[in-house]
Design a protein that fits this description.
- The chain is of the alpha+beta class.
- The chain has 13 helices and six strands.
- It folds into two domains: about 200 residues, Beta-Lactamase (2-Layer Sandwich); about 55 residues, Arc Repressor Mutant, subunit A (Orthogonal Bundle), CATH 1.10.10.10.
- It has a six-stranded antiparallel β-sheet with strand order 2-3-1-6-5-4, with helices on both faces.
- A hairpin with a 2-residue loop joins strand 2 and strand 3.
- The N and C termini lie far apart (about 45 Å).
- This is HTH luxR-type domain-containing protein.
- Keywords: DNA-binding, Transcription, Transcription regulation.
- It comes from Rubritalea halochordaticola.
């Protein structure tokens, strides 16, 4: 690791706050059913503000029955159940591959310091700056730096988490390359501020995936497609035609969605959504 100077950095200034407020304002243009698109905007804008090479959002859930066998262990029983990648950064598949690699390494070598810090402060909105946890010399000896960061050309990482409920968290990760400066305290505070101000978006993202307290199983991607159309008020015939599937197949998906949200009908589903 090439030594780089660490500075606390200037405090958040009025211009910084204005950028975050403008981001919040622009996010209000998206409807609840456009939460994924809203998060893409959040990632893109924050990636620019933080001078990050890539970033992604992670849906972290605990105690849920997964919709598929694919999962990535994160920390303290939480698993990554879905991702959204920053525009212009890594693809969804690249993010998935990196998280799978991280999961396999953590099983072999133990929990990394950032994951430990995530657990220690769980239940609150937090942003974790690697340099707050250990100095460069200590970090250079960590397996996660040697076997994961260096392999993936990651020079530094900034992580922020928002607790949606007792079983789910909304997490964003931003990376800088090895030839970039390290993140500073100002970057951490900017990201924490931005995350704390979009609580509704975090809830909508998890609700779209079935990741809320009253659900037991997460939705499949196809079920999410059906869900969005149910909530717009389309009939089952219209939904089936729009998605190019048979009426019986569509009805099977609808019943599965009702069961996963523990509601009996469309009205019950819409009432649940309205509370968020």
């Amino acid at each position: 690791m090439n030594p780089k100077p660490h500075h606390s950095g200037p405090c958040i200034c009025a211009d910084d706050v204005e950028q975050i407020v403008q981001l919040w304002h622009d996010l209000h243009k998206f409807t609840a059913l456009q939460a994924d698109e809203a998060m893409e905007m959040f990632l893109g804008r924050m990636g620019e503000i933080l001078h990050s090479c890539c970033g992604y959002w992670v849906a972290a859930a605990s105690g849920k029955e997964l919709a598929s066998s694919m999962k990535t262990d994160l920390y303290d029983g939480y698993e990554a159940v879905d991702f959204i990648a920053m525009p212009g950064g890594l693809s969804h598949q690249e993010v998935d591959d990196r998280q799978a690699m991280y999961s396999q390494l953590s099983i072999k070598h133990g929990v990394c310091p950032i994951a430990v810090a995530s657990v220690a402060s769980r239940g609150e909105t937090r942003a974790i700056l690697r340099h707050d946890l250990m100095n460069d010399e200590e970090w250079e000896r960590e397996w996660v730096y040697q076997k994961f960061y260096q392999v993936n050309d990651i020079g530094d990482r900034l992580v922020a988490l928002y607790p949606v409920d007792s079983q789910s968290e909304s997490c964003v990760v931003f990376d800088r390359k090895v030839d970039q400066d390290y993140y500073e305290a100002r970057d951490r505070e900017l990201l924490k501020l931005a995350m704390a101000g979009v609580g509704q978006l975090h809830r909508e993202l998890m609700l779209l995936r079935g990741g809320v307290d009253n659900t037991s199983r997460l939705l499949t991607p196809r079920e999410r497609d059906v869900l969005k159309l149910i909530l717009t008020g389309d009939t089952e015939k219209e939904i089936a035609e729009h998605l190019g599937m048979g009426r019986s197949t569509l009805h099977h998906h609808v019943i599965a969605i009702y069961r996963k949200y523990n509601v009996r009908n469309r009205a019950g589903l819409q009432a649940l959504w309205g509370r968020y």
